[in-house]
Structure prediction request, 660 residues.
Amino acid sequence: MSHHDPNGAAGPSVDSGDQNERIQARRNRIAARAQAQSGIAAKEHSAQGEPSVLDREAHKSMAHVASSRTYLDAVVEQGSDKVSLVRVTADMAESKRGRELDERRIARQKRLEEDVDESRKEFDHITGNWESSLGASGTTDLRGSLESQRKLCDALLENKQELIEEFRSTLKAKDDEFIKELRSQAMDVQTMLDVIGAEEKHVHTEYRSQYNSIEDVFRDERRELVSAASDQWQSEMKHRKGLEEQQHEKKFGTVDDFEAHLETLRQQDAEQFNKVKLKLETDIQNLEQELQRMRATYQLNSEKLEYNLQVLRKRDDENGATKIQQKRKMLRLQDTLNVFRARIKKQEKQFQDENAMLTEDYKRITDQFKDLQKKFKHFQTLERERYDEVWQMAEEENVELANRVLAADKAIVEQQLGLLWHGPDESMLMSQPPTDTNEREASEALKEIMDEQPIAGVLPNPAVKNALELICDEAGFLVESKLDGLLKPLAANERSLMRLDSIFKALGVETEADIHRLVGYFFEESGAGGESTLISPDEVAAALRTFVEDFRHLKGLDAEPADPDLGADRRNRNFWQQLVDLHPKEHVDVWNVLGEALANYGDMLKDRSNALDDCDALRAQNSELKTLLHQYMSADINRDLQIPPTVVMAHQVRNNLASN
Prediction:
């Protein structure tokens, strides 16, 4: 039931929670209405001049109407205050009950937390006592320990049972309190309905009474006006009739306004009643659901505790039976241990005799193996020297033939065809030298590059240094995290050298040529002047991936390994194909008409076949040596040795690698 201040000024409001403020707001509104009515009357009086008898009587009736209206407003406001008082009382009681519920809930939560902490401490204490119980030496100590454990478990269960009983009593009190609250809310609702009904009847009665009083005043006024204004009846009849009609319209308009206002109040009260009723029903349902949930929780906790008690009892029985079985097993194992000890002593003496004999055999075979290894290295060196000599002889012969063919091709092109002859690159007539020449290692070249010392290379030294610094900054994922921690105390230059050395080991870069090959992947030609510029840091990972793929293909790591004993991997196998590809296809078509050139080409192929036959003979000799070594290594006597020759060879190979 809301009312609005007609003046719209700041001040007491009828919607305030303070009763005195609401009363003052209604009084101000009544005074404003009376002041407005008096202002209208004053304006009419000033307009008409000296009031007549009719005006004085009309002023009396209007004053009575104003007083009736003021009285009715006071009656309505008084009824509204009674209804609001019931509502405010119920709201205060509900607020107080909510605060009490929150305090109880907080207390229960605190009680549960304290009980959980105490239970956890007791459970940890019980669990810790199990270890001491398992370490008990006698049955008396074990029984005493188990009895103390049982008492502690019973005490823990008793505390849980007391907590359950406490919550059950709280739940029962909660049910009683819930029923009382439902009854109290029902009584409050009924009280509000009774007050609303009584006030509605009282307002209706007062309206009817004031209406009858106003009607009586109007009747008395009419009779007085008829008797007092009989001489003015003809002249003022028309004016009086208009005043009566206007007065009747005002009266019925006022009645309609009051009825409309009353209907509005009824609708608002009905809506508010429905809202309160819906809220109360929702609260009841929520409380019932919470009650069912709490009951289910308490039932589940009770079942869990009962189940845990049964499990503990069953485990106690099983532990007793297991203890008896373990004692019997210990006796059997003790007998078995005595038998095994006697057997071990006998076998140890036998093994010592065998070990002494096998040690003598091992020394003898080791000496034989060392002699065989020296012979193997000697033959391997001779085979590599012979292979290099055959390669060099074949290379010289084929280069000479290639030069003769190029000379013939030049003569044919320039003399026979009259064209300008363009010879191939002279580097194609040179094979790759063996990789085991005195080529510098990557660490030595890296130190000179970082110290800005001049070295021979395709790119200038500052450009190579810039590329290496870019690799050091952007390829940190190839360096182990432990190494980064160890390098922090070092200077910046030394730290860069160590990081680059670790990155080179991860990429397989071993020589100075490999460094220049790697750096070449980090430069790109600019579009304008053809100058090489350093790539951006975002392209470092892609450049490293491309280098690794090309480097593995170049080293032959992706292909099947060749025979290492012939030293073929020390030479460029593509050299022979380079000799074949020296001459363009169109030149070969010209050579088809020259028989002498074809004969020379056939002789060159025969020489190459002879060289390949020599290589096959060398492979056969190497295979025989491998077979002989395999026979020594696969002899039956090696299986009886505690340290076979294969272990010794592997150890020597690791030592050689470490020394290199």
